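Appendix C reproduces, verbatim, an entry submitted by the partner laboratory led by Prof. M.T., so that reviewers can inspect both the input and the predicted structure.
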Amino acid sequence: MYSVISSNRGVGKVNKNWRVFEKEMLEKHFGKVLDVDGEDGHSVIEQYEKYKDDIRYIRWYPDPDEMNREEYEGMLKQRQQIGDIPFITNSPIGFLSVQNKEVAFARWKDVGVNCPDFFTYEDKNDFYKQREKHPIAFPFLVRLNNSVGGYNTYKVDDESMLDECLTKLDNEKPYSETGQTRRIQTKKLCVELVNSVDESRGVNTSFRLHVAGDRIVSGYARVVDKSDWCAITAGKFSDKHINDFIIYNKLCETIMTEHEEYICSAVHCLGLNHQGVDVIINQEDNSLSFLEVQPTYAAGYSDESGIGHWYSPPFYNPKEPNLVKFLTENMSELKQHIPRYCYNWLDKRNHFDLVYKSIKEFIDVRS
C-alpha cells in the first residue's frame, strides 16, 4: 500500500516530477509512492482521504517556476485539511520562499543568515522612493522576484544605466503575452550584487550545495569568466577554466564540511528539507552569501520522462562534452580531492540514495 503521496506538477506540464533514479531511491527509504496532480486544488486531499490509514508522508513538489496564486492557495488549503503530516522537500508554506526571492531574503535576514541587501518596489517612480529609504550601492541588480537563470534581470553598474534598466523592466511582460503572471506574486526587486569575482584568477564563481535533512549530500563549484555576473556553469563551461574548476571544487568540499550546520539551517528556517542551495563567497570579507533555494535542481531525467534526451549518461548533469571528458579521464585522481562531488553527485543513484536516507533520518528524529 502507499506510504507517500507525491504532489506533483500539474497535468500537461513538462514531466520533471522525478529525476533519474529519484523515485526508486525515495521508495527504498519511505515506501511506495502515489503520484497525483498537486496543482489542481483537490487531488491530494482526495487521495489522502482514500489512503489515509497508510499515508505517512507527503512530498510537496509543484512547479517552482510557474505555479500560480490559485494553485498555491489550493495547495495551502489541502495542507490545512490534511493536518500535520511530515513533508518531503517543501512544506506548502515554505514553498513561497522557493519562488519569491524576497521572502527567502527576509527570513534569512531575520534569523541571521547572510544574504544580499534588497528592497521591493512597484515601478520606476517607486524605485527612487524606496532607494532613499534603503540605499544600495552600485553595482546592483533590478529584477523580478521569481525569475531564474538571469532572465528579467538587469545589472546596473552606475547611475547612467539606471533609468534605462528600470524602464526595460517596467516594460517587460513576463510569462505571458498579456503580462498576467503565471506565478504566485510577482514583484520587482533591487538586489545588492555581492562581489564574487576572484580577480587574481579572473573568474566569477558560485556554489550549488545539495541539502537533504541535516546533511549536505553533495555540491559543486561553478566557474565562469569574471565579466559574467551570472555564474551558472550550464552552457558556459570552458577548458581554460579547468584548473579553476578543480581549485574551487576543492574549496566547495571545505565549505560543505566546515559550514554544514549553518547551510542546512538556512534551508530549515524556510520550512524546507531538501533543496539545492546557491551561495557565493563575498570577496570583500570572505563570507558566504546565500542567493536562493531550488528543490528541482538539475540532476537529469530518464528516457521514460520524455525529456531524457536533454541529459545523458554517465553523469546526466554535468553534460558539457569537454567537462565530461575531463572528469572521465581524471576520475581516479579527482576522487581523492573532491570525493563528495565524485561519489555523491556524479553518481546519481548514490546521490538520491543518500538524499532520501538523510531526509528519512531527519524526519524520524523529529517525529
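Residues 348-366 form the longest helix (19 residues). Additional entries are available on request from the coordinating office.
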